[in-house]
Amino acid sequence: MVNTAALTGINGLREIRRSPASHLAAALETGSVPGTVVLKEGPFQTMAGVRVDPASEAGSRIASVTGGLPARCGQVAGAEQVSVLWLGPSEFLVVAPEEDHDTLGGDLLGSLTAALGDGPGQVVDLSANRTMFELTGPRARAVLEKGCALDLHPRSFTPGTALATEVGNIPVVLLKTGEESFRLFPRASFADFLGRWLLDAMREFASPEVP
Amino acid sequence: MLLISCPNCGSRDETEFHYGGQAHVPYPENPNDLNDREWAEFLFYRDNTKGAFAERWLHSTGCRQWFNMLRDTVTYDIQAVYPMGAPRPATSTTAPEGATK
Ligand SMILES: [Zn+2]
Q1: Residue range B20-62, pLDDT digits in tens
Q2: Nearest-CA distance from B95 to chain A in Å?
Q3: Within a domain: B55
Q4: What is the pTM of this model?
Q5: A164 and B62 in contact by Cβ < 8 A?
Q6: B9 C-alpha vs ligand 1 centroid, how far in Å?
Q7: What is the per-residue pLDDT across B71-84, written as a single tens digit (0 to 9) for each?
């Protein structure tokens, strides 16, 4: 799916790594309606699950690495390329570009682990846990609304908000990155189902609108 | 579909939650002192209340936190949501059986 040949990591395994929805790449391209709604699988990300009490000393050390921790449901913290999504009062998902992974020359996991130190909590490499779909276009919200019970109207769901919820009965973290762009983070094993579900929900927008 | 107010996340669909059974069932102080009958009653015997019932819920698809809820088992009216460990709030409107007929 994504050409990551430029990145060479440990054990020569980089070349055979396949993203969970790579087999759908052609279908996603065919099913997309440019200018209306476009679906593609995003590039690999480095993801770290962090559990720490944000009010503790370890919490503030972690916050200084990530560029802050979100304080409540929906908030996204972080700096530059790193996003920290709120999963629970003391549970966060750090999402960063693939190159930030320690095996690729980055230091995200190492610096998070060092920041936690011997404080209570955990830092776990979850890079392979979830994949990322990017859904964009003026009808992206209409597609999501077919299978998501949350209020996705821009008055309550604003860019820079992330919510853990269900889309098409699949648990996902739904991140709104722009007025008409969303990122969905399903677990890898749900990528096939959710990709096909989204394609099905997009199908009607390929036909001319019935007046 | 119930709309449940998670203390952390706000109103969410019932399908995002898991039911955790009756709340306020204390673990026995000295489990070794219990005879088989008392132990079985602790493990398996629960109230089957008609009316306001205190129960535990887990927001499994959201914040993954437990909380307590006071729900009317007849009308499904959610009367209170309160943290784990907090005492059951007093209720003014318990509908005893036969109250509205
Ligand atoms: Zn919640």
Answers
A1: 999 999 999 999 999 999 999 999 999 999 999 999 999 999 9
A2: 31
A3: yes
A4: 0.87
A5: yes
A6: 4
A7: 999 999 999 999 99
Mark yes or no for CB contact B8/A171 under 8 Å: no
Tell whether B70 is covered by a domain: yes
How many domains are contained in chain B? 1
Q: Which residue of A has its CA nearest to B17?
A: A165
Mean pLDDT score across all residues of chain B: 90
Pick from B16, B64, B65: which is nearest to A166 by CB? B16
| CB-CB neighbors (< 8 A) of A88 in chain B | 8, 62-65
Distance in Å, CA A99 to ligand 1 centroid: 32
Residue A189 alpha carbon to ligand 1 centre in Å: 23
Q: What is the mean pLDDT of residues A183-203?
A: 97
Query: Is B54 inside a domain boundary?
Result: yes
CATH number of the domain that B25 lies in? Answer: 3.30.2270.10
Three-class DSSP category at B15? helix
Domain span including residue B52: 3-29+43-83
Contacts of B64 in chain A (CB under 8 A): 87-88, 91
Q: What is the pLDDT, as a whole number, of residue A146?
A: 97
Note whether A116 and A65 are within 8 A (CB). Answer: no
CB B52 within 8 A of CB B18: no
**Using alpha carbons only, what angle is made at residue A159 by residues B16 and A110, rounded to the nearest 5 degrees?**
75
Model confidence at B92: pLDDT above 70: no
Average pLDDT over residues A35-40: 96
Structure tokens at A39: 């679906």
Does any domain span residue B92? no
Under 8 Å between Cβ of A137 and A38: yes
